[in-house]
């Protein structure tokens, strides 16, 4: 039963709206927990009725006159909490179907922001119970029968589970709407948006020769936001480049993002250059992908005028008249479509619009020399002052001159099974855009 993370959606705001967040901490040292939850932001959250945190003393369920809760480990070793008192105390808190039980353990899953948000979901629908071990820990039979998840603060060992418990309670409480005074402060925290937080400063503006960045002193809110975004990117790249893989980088890019679906020149099944036909399914699905992930324009590049006219006709049906009224969401997506006779003309249009030469990311299903893993490209985009263009080929892929003429070629998408790699352009576009612009 233990060891599996919860499967609820990672959306903190929806959980905090659904109802009272209920947490119980089961411990042999209740005063450690009580003193913490009565203080500062956490205490205000409890007083406001948005958060309920109860502390249960394990010794109240101890055996005999000495209220025994632990005994020696079989086979030698230190003291271990007994399963009987633990189970009695747990059952007094909530029935099995009304609780989600977690336990701090050096063998558990390291805590991370998405897991905190999932546990908030659990605490909004059931009672989240944190069982604190001590000494050598908990009897494994209790863990196997009752614990849903073991978690850790890191690869080190503490004397008990109380410190990890209060850390978890504190992290969850910050996500409960109204507990922290300014909700935006939570959204700008490290990890919440995927990036590290930007640096903060206060008076004096000059401390022993160290100046506050001038962008923060002028009152220009646009300059302040730009500076903070740049600093968040710089910190993340230098300190924690590993977390960029799960961050959406949309808000940190200086220019727009574009998609080009190329129909010429592309390869046919024999490796010969040619032109492919446009399908309505591609138009609808990729337009919706582009709208979902914040792409500014979705280009269809083909030299065939009748094909471009067909695209315009399909798009026009959904942008104006009955189609727009029938499905406004589709109208938003189809409004992003623009036709172009060639890749070059599409890139020129983007260059004029953005006033900067585009950085082009070519995609291919074939492994070739000089390709770059998508995480490396993602880090590289964060340092650019240029629009980003993702180029997706049709047919049997992009020609060599298109690949070699691009700023970078992305390593092929792989299922990691047996080398089979024949995704549709719609699937490839969806995977790619989500890797770069999906919210964690």
Short description:
This protein has 440 residues and is of the alpha/beta class.
Main attributes of the structure:
5-stranded parallel β-sheet, 3 domains, alpha/beta, Alpha/beta knot, 6-stranded parallel β-sheet, elongated, 440 residues
Record the SSE blueprint.
Layout: H1 12-18, E1 21-27, H2 30-37, H3 40-47, E2 51-57, E3 70-72, E4 79-81, H4 83-93, E5 99-110, H5 113-125, E6 127-131, H6 140-146, E7 149-152, H7 162-173, H8 183-187, E8 206-207, E9 210-211, H9 221-239, E10 257-262, E11 266-267, E12 273-274, H10 280-292, E13 297-301, H11 305-319, H12 321-326, H13 328-334, E14 337-340, H14 343-354, E15 359-362, H15 374-381, E16 388-393, H16 400-404, E17 408-409, H17 425-437
Helix pairs in contact: 1-5, 2-7, 4-6, 5-7, 10-13, 10-17, 11-13
Overview of the molecule:
- This protein is α/β, with parallel strands linked by helices and 440 residues long.
- It folds into three domains: 162 residues, Alpha/beta knot (3-Layer(aba) Sandwich); 42 residues; 187 residues, Alpha/beta knot, CATH 3.40.1280.10.
- Helix content is 38%, strand content 17%.
- Strands 14-13-10-16-15-17 form a six-stranded parallel β-sheet, sandwiched between helices. A five-stranded parallel β-sheet has the order 2-1-6-5-7, sandwiched between helices. A two-stranded antiparallel ribbon has the order 3-4.
- Strand 8 and strand 9 form a beta hairpin.
- Helix 4 packs parallel to helix 6.
- The longest helix is centred in the middle third of the chain and has 19 residues.
- The radius of gyration is 28 Å and the shape is elongated.
- It starts with 11 loop residues before the first helix and ends with a helix.
- About 1% of the residues have low confidence.
């Amino acid at each position: 039963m233990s060891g599996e993370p919860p499967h609820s959606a990672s959306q903190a705001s929806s959980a905090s709206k659904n109802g009272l967040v209920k947490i119980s901490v089961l411990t042999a040292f209740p005063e450690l927990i009580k003193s913490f939850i009565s203080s500062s932001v956490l205490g205000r959250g409890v007083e406001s009725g948005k958060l309920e945190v109860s502390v249960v003393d394990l010794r109240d369920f101890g055996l005999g006159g000495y209220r025994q809760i632990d005994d020696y480990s079989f086979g030698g070793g230190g003291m271990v909490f007994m399963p009987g008192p633990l189970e009695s105390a747990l059952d007094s808190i909530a029935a099995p179907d009304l609780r989600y039980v977690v336990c701090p353990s050096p063998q558990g899953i390291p805590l991370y922001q998405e897991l905190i948000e999932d546990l908030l979901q659990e605490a909004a629908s059931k009672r989240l119970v944190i069982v604190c071990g001590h000494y050598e820990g908990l009897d494994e039979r209790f863990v196997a029968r009752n614990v849903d998840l073991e978690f850790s603060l890191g690869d080190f060992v503490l004397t008990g589970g109380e410190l990890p418990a209060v850390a978890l309670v504190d992290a969850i409480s910050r996500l409960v709407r109204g507990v922290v005074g300014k909700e935006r402060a939570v959204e700008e925290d490290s990890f919440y948006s995927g990036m590290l937080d930007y640096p903060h400063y206060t008076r004096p503006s000059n401390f022993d020769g160290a100046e506050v960045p001038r962008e923060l002193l002028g009152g220009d809110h646009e300059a302040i936001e730009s500076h903070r975004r740049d600093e968040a990117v710089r910190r993340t790249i230098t300190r924690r480049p590993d977390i960029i893989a799960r961050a959406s980088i949309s808000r940190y890019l200086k220019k727009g993002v574009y998609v080009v679906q190329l129909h010429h020149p592309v390869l046919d099944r024999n490796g010969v250059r040619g032109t492919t036909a446009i399908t309505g399914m591609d138009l609808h699905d990729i337009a919706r992908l582009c709208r979902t992930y914040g792409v500014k324009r979705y280009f269809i590049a083909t030299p065939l005028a009748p094909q471009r006219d067909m695209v315009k006709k399909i798009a026009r049906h959904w942008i104006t008249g009955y189609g727009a009224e029938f499905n406004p969401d589709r109208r938003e997506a189809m409004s992003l479509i623009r036709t172009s006779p060639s890749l070059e003309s599409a890139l020129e249009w983007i260059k004029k619009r953005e006033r900067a030469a585009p950085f082009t990311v070519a995609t291919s299903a074939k492994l070739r020399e000089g390709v770059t893993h998508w995480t490396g490209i993602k880090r590289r985009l964060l340092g650019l002052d240029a629009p980003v263009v993702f180029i997706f080929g049709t047919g049997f892929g992009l020609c060599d001159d298109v690949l070699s003429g691009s700023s970078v070629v992305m390593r092929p998408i792989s299922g990691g099974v047996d080398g089979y790699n024949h995704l549709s352009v719609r699937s490839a576009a969806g995977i790619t855009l989500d890797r770069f612009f999906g919210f964690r």
